[in-house]
Amino acid sequence: MTEYNFAYLDEQTKRMIRRAILKGLAIPGYQVPFASREMPMPYGWGTGGVQVSAAVLTPKDTFKVIDQGADDTTNAVSIRTFFQRTAGVATTTATSDATVIQTRHRIPEEPLHEGHILVYQVPIPEPLRFLEPRESETRKMHSLEEYGLMHVKLYEDISRHGHIATSYAYPVKVEGRYVMDPSPIPKFDNPKLGDMAAIQLFGAGREQRIYALPPYTQVVSLDFEDHPFEASKADHPCGMCGATDSYLDELIIDDLGGRMFVCSDTDYCEARQAAGHKGKDAA
Amino acid sequence: MIELKDVSKTFTLHNQGSAVIEVISDVSFAVAPGECVALTGASGAGKSTLMRIIYGNYLTQAGEIRIGGLDIVRSEPRDIIKLRRDVLGYVSQFLRVVPRVPTLDVVAEPLRALGVPTDEAQDRASALLTQLNIPERLWSLSPTTFSGGEQQRVNIARGFAHAYPAMLLDEPTASLDAANREVVLSLIEDAKARGAAIIGIFHDEAARTRVCDREIDVGRFTPGMAA
Amino acid sequence: MTPLLSVQGITKRYGAHIGCADVSFDLYPGEVMGIVGESGSGKSTLLNCMAGHLTPDAGHVVFDTRTDGPRDTITMSEPERRMLGRTDWAFVHQHARDGLRMGVSAGGNVGERLMAVGDRHYGDIRDKAMDWLGRVEIDASRVDDRPRTFSGGMQQRLQIARNLVTGPRLVFMDEPTGGLDVSVQARLLDLLRGLVRDMGLSAIIVTHDLAVVRLLADRLMVMKSGRVVESGLTDQVLDDPQHAYSQLLVSSVLQV
């Protein structure tokens, strides 16, 4: 512990990041540039989320990390261990026990509460990037609320697939102002973004951007009048816990085409199984 | 309807030692509605030049040209364009069109420019093309591929599509056979009957005698050519 | 009558070099004006100053807006100017790839301006896009193809559809037929003539091709070294040019 400052980053860096977070909270959905630091892990492994977590963690916090809903993947385990060692904070896999949750690609099934902080790892913060490569131009589009291009992307989806095929990183409009990339969460999670009791912080390390949603923010998924937004999921119950309301991962279980659907949120699934719920594939 | 007062025109050739060529000077005459006036004079006397001056195609250095009350020497381009659209028709010796546009549309265009619906404009164009003996199978083709005589008849059909109150005709009967010449002369007579003021150049003396009320010898306005 | 566009004393310098100097004219509704001159004569600089792509060092570009009447577009706020660029103004680039999104389908390219002004009904947007493809003579079956699969002439026509779909009142064109085959040029010119007439568009066309202005423009401005040396009725300037440079320009064109 003595080798590192609390939560790895030095206090000046954390102050800088906190200022960016506060600005982000003050302007929901607006991408605040920040001086992203080199972290002891490669870009793409959550350096943005780790820096945000480092800046908001206090010694009293209980920390949870999920990767695609799971607490036990390499990425989740290594980040959890990182803060165990550099901040000495308590860690947990139980959503209800955690006060700060760093996540990659999911929002927990269990509702979050006031006082909670959900930190997202963001690969590409700019929702307009795929259609407009110039940063100078996308910034101008945000500042002038020129969002026609975002609908062009959805238009292209429908023209090619007959429906809006974007199934993750589905763009949203925040408080009727900024269009925001919610990070690559499945669009099933989009409705949870709005009106959430917890603070949501988004960190993009390589792209050096932080943005935020304060509690109870209005978040609307973009759509067309004749192609309304739908939060979709695989049309099955969870094979392990039988839940019908959770986002499912599809697992291939043999080379004969056999497959099963299980909750992507491992904590949610395990808690349900512990309470006696049983799916058709449960042992 | 058409009134010229002391009109003079010179060309200054800046790239040939700034040579100044006086073309015509002090032209004054008037043409009343229903009247057809022939411009005569030797080749090079400036008949076509005078006609282009009246059309606003050549810039006039001095004098006044009033057509339907508008002095085109002192008018804005948009007023001259409006005048050409509504009041002043011009049948030149050469047909100038956008390649690939069908003949029927070429003839209907002056009416389309006036806001006449497509169907109505095309009906009028069909009638004129029929009258001028352009076979219907050619109507959908561009006139750029036509023979000289056919092009001239398309040009005339285009010039007569709209009932202009004032018209300029540069050799309208040249290179036409007897039957088509007759059609053109009757078109001119019809235009006079409805009150159009017409200025024409006719080498064809019989035609001139038949449709023109007066002759104006342009030679007398031409410096150095006056007898 | 109020001019649609009133250009007053536009001057743009690039350091010591003059882009264009003290250019003034009024453009009235329905008028098409051509600007000709050799490369470097300042015609493109002038066009970009008028269209808001460049900020002139002096002068005013007053546009008769639908809601507030004449406004100086140089001093209006950038959001207002960009809004004009999506609604009442259109800009046709010489190279279609500068004016199109090459990675977006033809329908998406045409629909973008509609979505930018708030259209949110996919079916309506698509119908309008197909209608416009038809008007610029592109088969509706190509609506989902990307422009990179189109010929140069088709790309240029798609660019025109994309620009005109919101019913602009003023179109800026920078060498719209440049780089196209002669036969394709003729087709495009005919199309533009019809659209200008039927929609009552006003247009400013920059080109060095005198045949283009003769066919499309009512009025002509001849530029040399950043200044306007002559202006007037197109056929009058071409057939009876007054200025030494205009005479040289006209006489330099090969007769065919």
UniProtKB/TrEMBL annotation, chain A:
Keywords from the UniProt entry: 4Fe-4S, Iron, Iron-sulfur, Lyase, Metal-binding, S-adenosyl-L-methionine
Reactions the enzyme catalyzes: alpha-D-ribose 1-methylphosphonate 5-phosphate + AH2 + S-adenosyl-L-methionine = alpha-D-ribose 1,2-cyclic phosphate 5-phosphate + methane + 5'-deoxyadenosine + L-methionine + A + H(+)
Cell membrane as UniProt keyword: no
Keyword Transport: no
Domain of life: Bacteria
Record EC number: 4.7.1.1
Database matches in InterPro entries: PhnJ
The protein's enzyme class: lyase
Family classification: Belongs to the PhnJ family.
Stated role: Catalyzes the breakage of the C-P bond in alpha-D-ribose 1-methylphosphonate 5-phosphate (PRPn) forming alpha-D-ribose.
The protein's name: Alpha-D-ribose 1-methylphosphonate 5-phosphate C-P lyase
Organism the protein comes from: Parasulfitobacter algicola
Automatic annotation (TrEMBL), chain B:
Gene3D superfamilies listed in its UniProt record: P-loop containing nucleotide triphosphate hydrolases
Coiled coil: none
GO molecular-function terms, A-Z: lyase activity
Keyword Chloroplast among record annotations: no
Keywords per UniProt: ATP-binding, Lyase, Nucleotide-binding
Superkingdom of origin: Bacteria
Domain spans labelled ABC transporter: 2-226
Family: Belongs to the ABC transporter superfamily.
Protein's recorded name: Phosphonate C-P lyase system protein PhnL
Record organism: Parasulfitobacter algicola
Automatic annotation (TrEMBL), chain C:
InterPro entries named in the record: AAA+_ATPase (IPR003593), ABC_transporter-like_ATP-bd (IPR003439), ABC_transporter-like_CS (IPR017871), P-loop_NTPase (IPR027417), PhnK (IPR012700)
Keywords carried by this UniProt record: ATP-binding, Lyase, Nucleotide-binding
UniProt key word Methyltransferase: no
Keyword Isomerase attributed: no
A GO molecular-function annotation: lyase activity
Pfam families named in the record: ABC_tran (PF00005)
Residue span(s) of domain ABC transporter: 5-250
Protein name: Phosphonate C-P lyase system protein PhnK
Species this protein is from: Parasulfitobacter algicola
